[in-house]
## 1
Amino acid sequence: MIEMESLFYVFRNITFADVNNDGLPDLLLKTYNPYRFISFYEQQPDHNFKMKRFEYGIDRIDAYGSGQVWFDYNNDGKIDLVICNQNKASLFKNTINNGNNAIQIELRCTSGNKFAIGGRAYVYSGSQRYMREVSCGQDECVQFPYRLHFGVGTSSSVDSVVVLWPTVPQKREVFRNLIVNKVYVLTEGVKLIPALSDRNLSLHPI
């Protein structure tokens, strides 16, 4: 349930991202009618969404941008925000330091489309399961990154990652013993190839 100021706004952009790496995707809304502004809703442990526009500084962002996308531009494990406005882009760095961990995964498909669009990754960490799907397209002037970002809260390890490849028939692979706060490339039927050589390990699917 979302705590809304009004239900009479027309929303132009709606995007989810785990901004504080607690394992719960948060929600960014941009409206353009009757007037333009950006709202940010933090997902709570009970899965309700609470307005945190001012606490996160979202109220200071120019709402006249034409598109928005989340990605970790500096590979520090925190998801950052880019808003496009006609012929320029504005980058907003995530500076939250709450001790939560994350893992980032890129999929490479060898028997389907290269970037595994439509593929899904399930991350198992402790008693929790997280899912992200590779998609393409997002909004005007922006494109979803192929890299999947998973906040895992205070968990210090990832038990396994299950990948459902976008193949016919669908292929399933399991990768184990991944480390938090790393970036991995999972290639169908092949060992992991580091996305960043100084941040990754090479593992074999089992």
## 2
Amino acid sequence: MEHPRIKTEFFVPVRVVLASIVLSLAVPPPGKAAEVPYTERVISAVGASSAYATDVDGDGDIDVLSASGSKFAWFESDGGSPPGFTERVLSNTAVGARSVYATDVDGDGDVDVVAAAEGTFFQTVEGEVTWYENDGGSPPSFTERVISSPNPSCERFYWSVHAADVDGDGDMDVLAGFVHCSGGSTNWYENDGGSPPSFTERSVPSSGGSSVFATDVDGDGDTDVVTGSRGGFLDEVTWDENNGGSPPSFTDRVLSDFGLVGSVSSVFAADVDGDGDIDVLAASQDYGIRWYENDGGSPPSFTERTVPSTGVWPSSVFATDMDGDGDTDVLAAFNFGAGSIAWYENRLLECGNGLVESGEECDDGDIEPGDGCSETCMVEPGSKCTGEPSVCITGIPAVSTWGLAVMGLTILCAGTIVQIRRTAQGKVLLSLIGVLCLSSVSWGMPLYVDASCGDDAKAGTSPNCADADGPKLTLQNAIGVAAATDEIIVAQGTYNELIDFSGKAITLRSTNPTDPAVVAATIIDGSGLGGSVVTCASNEGPDTLLSGFTITGGIAEGGAECITAAAAQRSPTAPSAETPRFSLKGSA
């Protein structure tokens, strides 16, 4: 198993000609994870339009609720690791079960369920918002109660429901997103605190009607509202800032505007990355599952990020700690075809996430042994690992009778310092007071290239331009001296040259292939050189890797002659979250 970086597979004679390519990858970069890795686990193979997770029966583990067809149901967790689930039905007579949520609506200490039925739009059967009162049994029984009122002059078709203390008076209010004769809207229903409570309908200025969620987004102590919209209206993700008051007023703020495409079917908010502020999640039937990272500002700004998923047309998204390991997992429902309900395990704080964390010696992005970094993220004997994700050198031979004790810029051989030196011709030498220990050994050493200060006469083993073995000036010179498994790390800049991998199983990458700014600033430009910018015509295989560049300026026969047809056909505007992303620049 290799560490998760861009792998552009090369198959000759297959040739796809592109004038320019920008490559990036949805994997966790060093430091704060921009792309959290997840493992999918299926709860139900029956299609659902909504899912939510909480401890419904009060037994200490997390159960799951769903809305599907004419049925509202909850899935009782058995508390296993990972847990199994038993389905229990709340109602099977809903007209278009659309959305489900759970909280203590009546303040009696147990978990009630809030639900929205869409109705039937083309038959003008209006939707309905209800809540199911928990009787506290084991397992609990539920009594259905209606919240919404009919609106015969402009029927409402409810798509989303949520509950929170919107007005800060200590009881749970209910929010609902819906569409009607004039577009999308969001209402909140003020709880009067009765037993059982009655509700007063109030509006939120957002145009979102497909999904609604409420929490303190900006950290100012009151309840804000997050909404999503879809279905031919303005498709966007917004949050409505609570300005206080009794009842409160709201200021509408846009997080992401998909225009007339995007179909935002669900929104949720939670601290996904564990940094102490509230992030926003959204499920888009056109763009998959996204989360928006809160920068903690006042008001906050947000950065859009992706959760990889194999499901099609996500209809609902939710976040909680599903497996009890202390981080935030993601739960999603999909309603395309047979549909499914799945959850995505957050692997931000564990071995195999590509980050070298406390107690780890390495982390190459997997938990497979035999590749230099073990299944417990320890460096395996005879290996050396560096970086995040860790790049490991394996099969380091013993040095005569001295034995190899430490691998690095210097090596300790039986108490004697043995120094590594790499020549400009690419040989790795170990010397002991003039005695050669090993010669011409290729261990996958890193080489460096820098367009601003490099020198092709230097060995290229140091990224520092002032060093005697500092970076090379050109990519092709570095490729020429590179040995199998070597990694060439390229500083930001423009490299006006044509390159040929010459059949070598090496990695050529920018300093950070997962950072769009670095990718955009690391350019291989073939302008004026009259050929393909990148050539791989010498039986290169899957171990030849190109990662994190903007490639432009190719003419005639090509910008790049080494990309598979499958890769080239990916959309530049809506890339898969599980594969490298491609953006086209210039023309062939």
## 3
Amino acid sequence: MAGQPLKIQVAFQGGGAKIFALIAAAEVLKGFEREGRVQVTRIAGTSAGALVGTLYAAGVEPAVMRSELGSFPLRKLMFRRLLPAPIHMLRKAWRNKPIAKVAPLEELLARLLRSGLDTKELVFNSLAIPTVVVATDVGLRRKRLYKEEDPLIPAILSSCAIPFFFRTASPENTDSLILDGGLWANLPSDELEQSAALGPIVAFTFLDSGEAKAPKSSFQLAKALLDTAIESSVLRARNRTGLHVVQLNPFGISTFDFEAAQRELAVPPGRPYAVGPAYDRARKATQERLEDLIEESSREPQVVLSNIWKEADARMMERLYRVYKSQEMIRPFKYLRHLVIIQADSLLSTAGDRKAHDVLTQILRFTPSSTEIDFILLSLSVADKEEIGFVSCSVTDAAGQKVPFEFFPVMSDGGPGLLVAFTPPLKKGVGDFQLRVRYKIRDSMPFLKKGERDEIVLTAERADGVVDRMELVLLVPEAFGKVRIEAPPAAERGVYVGGPWDLDELAGAMAPEGFVPRGWAGEEVPASAAFKAYFLKDA
């Protein structure tokens, strides 16, 4: 309903010193909540993400997190030593003793939690937002979840218990050894459920640094094995469908680079609003993703997701397409209307501008005419999967009621596609349906941008007879100048020639201020024909 905040669930990835970026994300998230734009309904966190997520749920202001962690004396964590640091750490590990002290961190957590919960009992049930924290039980080889009646501080410390650094094996251990949750699920999005009542899942994760190198020593090998296991769990979590991923760039700050992280968190004297450059980038990335999610959800889609093609297994996407092509292409359906609208923001972007995206909307109105429909494939009009931004999708019947469906990323002969599976299948002769997909891509009209002739082409796969109506709309920024449309030559084989079109109410409602619509339409378009129009910039 308009005016109500968008309900979301939040998963915070673990990352050690990269906690600075999670605090930056939490700061933006808290601002959106204060403005009534979002409402966080559930939180899941691992390691550093468990710390930030639990403090957030306890009502601790991100500014307080930043101040306290930015000024925390790291030397308090280390035992007094007479030997050089590497020898000291090896000696501790050899004696099955942790390298760092946990008591100072425990005191910090107690102080922060009390600032948010006051006199409430320090257990999960006292939190304002239901929260789950993930750790790893290495004795039982399984995850350990903390929630409800579990105490908060031991849960956070267990989830952050980096092996050898905070905890190690010991002959005195009688219970299972609980270690860092990143060993099991560093991005704990699986602990949140797909639920319309709870809202979409927003996962805060980190960009891969791309700086991995072959290990040169036993220590580097052990670290590489640990990093590989953790990254594998993160990739599996990101592949979950329906996840809205916010990728935070740590800009070279590694898991154990706590001094660099503190420089990002530090509050300069007399400049409470000054932040480090990487901290500021994390804030901006979070703001952009949340804005996208709110914009799409305001249009009442049933699914809003990020670029699932980037993380999905390439062979599986190709296999799904081959199965679809062999089984579904022989099952036609009636196209009543096929509309494509391109909001060409990138016509005004400069070279190298990676933020400018065009918004593409496809609306397909159809009816199961000859057989029931299990699947429909929508091609996303882009060759490179890296160029896709968010995608939103909805299916409604003739009465405007939502139709249940699932979706899968596929890689077709022409590039990425969204395979929509109706659950249950749409029965023959039961009425009309409308499938709407919106997504962002970069530079949809690259030739027009350079002042050359560009084109939009629309085809109708599996059409049962002629397509009643096909429409193309280009929304041109006013500042770009005038654009005219030309019909393809009549001699161009396999192409249907339409004509200029003044937008109707549906298409006109999608033209924002500052854009000039240019429309082209055709009726009774043969199923085998390509519907095409050329776009040129006026001199």
## 4
Amino acid sequence: MTSQSSTARWVGVALLDYDNDGYLDIFFTNGASIPGLNKSNRTFSNRLFHNNRDGTFTDVTERAGVSGEGYSMGAAAADYDNDGWTDLYVTGVNRNILYHNNHDEHVHGRNREGPSDGHFRREEVVVGIGCVGRLRQRRASLISS
């Protein structure tokens, strides 16, 4: 094995209904090239798979904007801003990323009542001790605006 191995290293998983269609979708985190710890090619991208409701899944990673950065290790899915849409928090080596599910509000003009193709925007990067406090501050500023 070389130090620049391009083998996928699936290390974390989250089940979520990112598009509010009533079916669980699957998000996998992935590693990165070593020793650089960067996603030097698509092999290292995190992956989001949309449930097609027939036992198959479609890779929607690029469209959703959640391919990630660096060496991702874990994921949590929750509606952090209480808007009715599941967001993703991805943990990794030297960085953590919160992906806010904007449920296509800026792309297709859909409202929160109907299903969405699910686009995420990178809302915040927090690293190290004290990240929870910064996340709470960011959430407070989103709610008040």
